[in-house]
Amino acid sequence: MVEKEESRGKKLQKELALPQKSAWERLEGDTREKVFAFAEGYKTFLSRAKTEREAVRAALEAARGRGFVSLADLPPGRGLNPGSRFYLEWRGKVLLMGIMGTADLAEGIRLVGAHVDAPRLDLKPMPLYEKDGLAMFKTHYYGGIKKYQWTALPLALHGVIMLRDGRRVEVVIGEDSADPIFTVSDLLPHLAKEQMKKNMEEALSGDDLNLVVGSIPYPGEDDLKDKIRLAILQLLNERYGLVEEDLITAELELVPAGPARDLGFDRSLVGGYGQDDRVCGYTALQAILDLEVPRHTALVLLVDKEEIGSTGNTGAHSRLLEYAITELASRVGTTSIVHVGRIMANSQAISADVTAGVDPTYENVFDMHNASRLGYGVVLNKYSGSRGKYDANDASAEFMGRLRDIFNQNQVIWQSGEMGKVDAGGGGTIAKFLAYFGLDVADCGPALLSMHAPLEIASKVDIYMAYRAYKAFLAS
């Protein structure tokens, strides 16, 4: 049979137009099997790393297991050669991992930065009270949440308590099937007539997010006040040795209980809490673990506090990157301001963060010509921000072109995208804080559905392509 000759128009379309095709249809060889295998490790990490501390701890264990050593243990001017693997940890909430390259540090580094904090409910400093036959905890939400999504949901308590005697106690309650869970109660629809008249933002206030924690009174003494509250304090004292004052010096976080799961009949998606931005934290971690000796020194930085503006001494808005580069430079013989500045000015970075994927139910908030789709590859964003690019890092054409070339040369399936329609809203990343030091920076990460919800959705093929993208960039 004679094959029909391809029309001139179809030839031109292939040559000139950007293909819009699912990444699943573009996979070659055994890549599909690699995609699914990679997702298994990711789900384990996501289920284990429910807080920024837990994410850093899991990453640090993996790094140590692959030969990374603490930079703080190496004397200045000694111990770093091409291929040397090192890390720096800050306050249990930030981790920098690196591999020395063959090029001089002054030629710049390759950095992938992600954040490992996620929206949640934190306990207030004095959380425990009793009312109407129940013991309750007061919470203060962290990050941008839809408050109604956090009611009538099984929650687990994770965190750290500093006791009066100086001991540090770690808490995880609600993840094991034998553990109790906690929840924020909701108003029944039978009595919610007035509540249902309110808009979604006003229907529930931050001070309505109160946690049910118990109901049995302290026995035998009728003249005691708040006996249920006392009984809960007694339980906490018996189990953890704490008194109420210790709650003031604690970091206790409420997160959705339970593991990450496959989602969909075909198991092509991952459903789980905290994928913004632990999906990028994990893929960046695996990229540097699997990296051979690079030309430029390669760094992966996992930071805290992005969801509240990257503030504090564990957020990207601090000077921790400058400190890290200075520490690194001191190990190769110089700490001069000029030299450190030159390193950063010649460096390039990916701000590894997620973006909004098109939700078929809510297409109206997306510019469909510039929207990201789940299953179409990792998303390369020139800028983020909101409305008139406010609070954005706007990557240069030169750097975007370089990233495109790196991805295309390394079989990374990628797509372009924006958060949504120009005036619909927007969001920021750590990109602008990395760029503050003079680095070329662009945003790159998977698209999600239900971002900032207790359960977020990502495509396994996009997750794998994020890993490939970060690894190719670090090796460049």
UniProtKB/TrEMBL annotation:
Gene3D superfamilies: Aminopeptidase i, Domain 2, Zn peptidases. CDD domains: M18_API (cd05659). GO terms for biological process: proteolysis. InterPro entries: Peptidase_M18, Peptidase_M18_dom2. Its cofactor is Zn(2+). Pfam families: Peptidase_M18. SUPFAM superfamilies: Aminopeptidase/glucanase lid domain, Zn-dependent exopeptidases. One of its GO terms (cellular component) is cytoplasm. It comes from the Bacteria. Transmembrane segments: none annotated. Keywords: Aminopeptidase, Hydrolase, Metal-binding, Metalloprotease, Protease, Zinc. One of its GO terms (molecular function) is zinc ion binding. Its EC number is 3.4.11.-. It is an enzyme of class 3 (hydrolase). NCBIfam families: PRK02256.1 (NF002600). Belongs to the peptidase M18 family. This is M18 family aminopeptidase. It comes from Neomoorella glycerini.
